[in-house]
Specification:
The protein folds into three domains: about 1-45 and about 110-135, OB fold (Dihydrolipoamide Acetyltransferase, E2P); about 50-105, Beta Barrel (OB fold (Dihydrolipoamide Acetyltransferase, E2P)); about 140-190, no CATH class. Helix content is about 10%, strand content about 45%. The chain has two helices and 16 strands. The chain has helices spanning about 155-165, 185-190, and strands at about 10-20, 25, 35, 40-45, 50, 60, 65-70, 75-80, 80-85, 90-95, 95-100, 105-110, 115-120, 125-135, 150, 175. Strands 1-14-13-3 form a four-stranded antiparallel β-sheet, with no helix packed on it. It is elongated, with a radius of gyration of 23 Å. The two termini are about 35 Å apart.
């Protein structure tokens, strides 16, 4: 027998949320600033991908340290097999091993909540004081899922596309609720 359990919605004030940069960068807010979900708190240059290339690789061109290569450009060969650059980046040689590292890109730190900046660790992180609503929720799906819940309570095509194109690096690990239904165009864009 299935017995649903109802829990009261909790409103919590003075909740602290930390937003941190993955590497040292710069922070653009100060203590006491009022922020909204899309407020940029800071920025850092980040390179997420790094691969070590095979030892037996023969270069197809003259190697110079910190050589820039674009996506799908031939780096070298292992036997008769081409080794192509999987992304834009720099080729370096460290301790006799070739390493290909993705070009550093801007990583913008967003507040993600409405609130007020409580404290700032210069060039590293920001602590935001906000309020939350703790909702006990059950959703029925074919698969067992967990992740960050993104809610668009009053969905508009502009807001959804703006989020997917500007702020969402990847939708894996996120549960997205968009009101009554999601359009086919939006689902294709998200996936």
């Amino acid at each position: 027998m299935y017995a649903p359990i109802l829990k009261r919605i909790k409103y919590l004030d003075n909740v602290l949320v930390e937003r941190a940069l993955p590497v040292k960068g710069f922070t653009s807010v100060k203590e006491g600033d009022v922020v909204e979900p899309f407020t940029k708190l800071g920025m850092a240059k980040v390179s997420f991908s790094k691969i070590m290339l095979p030892d037996k690789m023969k270069m197809t061109r003259e190697f110079s340290n910190k050589m820039f290569l674009t996506t799908k450009k031939e780096i070298g060969r292992v036997g008769f097999k081409k080794v192509l650059a999987p992304f834009d980046g720099y080729l370096t040689k460290e301790s006799g091993v070739f390493i290909f590292q993705e070009e550093a890109r801007d990583y913008w730190l967003l507040s993600g909540v409405w609130g007020q900046v409580a404290s700032v660790v210069k060039d590293k992180s920001v602590l935001v004081k906000t309020q939350v609503i703790d909702v006990k929720m059950v959703a029925c799906t074919k698969h067992n899922v967990s992740g960050e819940l993104l809610v668009f309570p009053n969905p508009s095509d502009t807001l959804e596309m703006h989020y997917l194109e500007k702020f969402s690096k990847d939708v894996r690990g996120k549960i997205i609720y968009m009101g009554d239904f999601a359009t086919k165009r939006l689902v294709k864009r998200a996936v």
